[in-house]
Every structure is written in C-alpha cells, then in structure tokens.
Amino acid sequence: MTRSAARSQVSARPPYRVWMMVTTLAIQAATIVGTWPNLKIGGFHCHFRHAIQSHHFALIATVPVIAACVCNYLLAQFVVVKSPVDNLPNPLVLKARSLPNFIQQDRNSESLIQFRRNLDEILRMDYPDSLSKAVAIRRWVRKQQAQDEHVWMPPFRRNHENPHRLLEEQRKGVPGACRRFSYILLGALLSAGFDARIACFTRSLRRGENHVTVEVWIEELTQWVLLDPTCDAMALVDGKVASALELQEVVVREQLDRITFQRNGATLEPCPSPAAYGRWCRHLFVAMSNAVFDGYSVRIVGPRRLRFLHYSRESAYPILRKQILLAVGGSGLGLSAMFWAWILFCLSAE
C-alpha cells in the first residue's frame, strides 16, 4: 500500500457532524409543530394548556442550538481542535532540550514500567550509541503492525493516547496509522529512558493532510532527531539527522532536494518521500507534555490536557477565533438545555 493511499484513508471521515445537526434540527422542528397552539395534524386537534409558553420556548431554544451547530461545523474545519494551542514567535525555543512549562512523564510510573516489559528483548542488546538504540525501538514499533491493506484504512473512531491500549489494538489488527505509531513510539522511547515528544505536521490550519511523528533527544548530538515510525525512517537534511524544525525550514524554502531518508534496512511500506513531506510540513505542532502514562491526553476539558506549541512562517494559529467558537457553541447548548427543560416541564403539566 502506498503512502498517499494510507494518508487519504486516514484523513477520510464520515459526515457524522452533518447527521448530528440534521437530527437535532429535525427534533426541534417536530417539537415546535407539536407545541403549536390549536394546531390540527392529520385530523387530530392539538391543544396544550401551556401551548403558548412551550411553543415560544421551543422557538427560542432552536436559536442557540442552530448557533451551536454552526460553531461545531466551523470548529470541525480546524486542526488540533480539542487541545489548547499557543503560537510560538521564536522557533529557536524548539531546539532546547526542555521547553518552558513542559510537563515531563514520571519515570517511576507503574504504567511506564509495565510498558517497558514489551521492550525487554530490544533493551537487552548492546548498541554503539543512543541513536542506534532509538532506531532499533522505532523499527520494533513498525513491526508491530501488519502490512495488510485493511489495517491502514481505519473507520471513524475515537482517538486516544494510551500506549498500552494502542499497542494492543495494533497487535490485534485494529486499523490505525501515523498517530497510533507515534504515540506507541513515544511510550517506548520514554520507557527506554529517552526524552521524547510528539511533533505533528499539517499542510494548513484547516483539517486535511497531516502527519504525526516523534522527536527524540540524542545526548551525544545534543539535539532533537525526528523519527517517523509510520515510514520506519529518519529524516536527513544535507545528509545529517534533522529535527522537525530543521525539516520544516527546508520545506518552507522549497529545497526538497536537500531531504533524504535513512531507513536502516527497513523494507516495509509506506516509504517516505520528500514530496510528501513537502506537502505536510507547512505548520508544526509540538506537544507540551509527554506524560501519556500519567493520563495526559487530547481532550476538550479536564486537568490533564495536552497543549501544543504551533510554529509556521505562513500564518498564526487562530487562537481567539477558536475560543470564541467554543464559547458560543458551549453557551448555545447550555441555553438550549435550559429552554428544553422548561418545555418538558410545560408538557408534563398537561
């Protein structure tokens, strides 16, 4: 299976939001019709003691629901909707080993220690340097997923970031792609003692082509090195290992001929290509935590939310616009729920 085919399947999503909005509005319309005072439907005379009140409240309740549906539709066009995002004015910050306010994984976590047992065979071997060890872990992660085409075409399902569950799904043949590979590799590198973080590339700030990878800190090189577990490869710029930021800088300058890949003997598809990275690497999102064994995840609300830093020369992430849409959408649902509660109260009084 080719890399482009895998990505197109991963990006495909059924229009569930459209059906949700249509169903919601249909229920609203049915309630308005049913509560209309002195209305005759099919020969039946409909009259409620509180018909005027419930009819008016049904009309009012429809407005915030429509607003919430519109906000939901607009939010669906964003990338990284569920997580807070901060724009990064100075990209040099990404070169440091530790980012400001970065939340590190607890290395004594029982969940991390349990995950390390999956790597016993890999960790028992001797390696000439830490980069070779990281590459061996990357190759182990890729081999956990079969080459069968059906496992590269995931249906719509809820994503999560738990390495244990992701590895179990991968071994069972549950469809998945770059996102799952990367969070498993993140967990494996952390359990082996490396510093690592998620780095996601997107073509634009609208939902579309994207690619999730992992950066690992190599002490001997004193730099971050990008590992692509999906393509089982390491990106090189001018023949040298590169970070996500260095790779993006080359792409932005349209110097794709400087990009090559080192696969360390890997033969499984998909194979990496400079052209694919040239499409993806316009916007870079770097996770502000690697504490996936401690319950940090991508979510709308909650104390353990993954935050992301965004950097791009093209445009800033629309933080304020997203906050407004989330606020209006959430408020609309809340107000509508209050009005619907009153409508049900009126109807139950009949």
Explain what this protein looks like in three dimensions.
The chain has helices at 3-11, 16-34, 51-75, 110-116, 120-123, 130-143, 163-172, 178-191, 244-252, 274-280, 319-348, and strands spanning 39-41, 44-46, 85-87, 196-202, 210-218, 223-228, 233-237, 240-241, 259-262, 283-287, 308-311. The longest helix has 30 residues, at 319-348. Strands 3, 4, 5, 6, 7, 8, 9, 10 and 11 form a 9-stranded mixed beta sheet that branches. Strands 1-2 form a two-stranded antiparallel ribbon. Helix 3 (51-75) runs antiparallel to helix 11 (319-348), helix 4 (110-116) crosses helix 8 (178-191) and helix 6 packs across helix 8 (178-191). It folds into 2 domains: 3-77 and 323-348, no CATH class; 85-317, C8orf32 fold (Roll). The radius of gyration is 25 Å and the shape is globular. It contains 11 helices and 11 strands. It has 350 residues and is an alpha+beta fold.
Tell me which oligomeric state these chains represent: single chain
Biggest sheet: strands, sense, closure? 9 strands, mixed
Number of strands: 11
| Large-scale geometry | globular
CATH fold label of the largest domain: C8orf32 fold
Q: What percent of residues are in strands?
A: 5-15%
Radius of gyration: 25 Å
Low-confidence stretches are 1-17, 39-52
**Overall CATH class of the largest domain:** Alpha Beta
**What is the helix fraction of residues, given as a range?**
40-55%
Distance between the termini: 62 Å
Task: Offer a few descriptive terms.
350 residues, C8orf32 fold, globular, alpha+beta
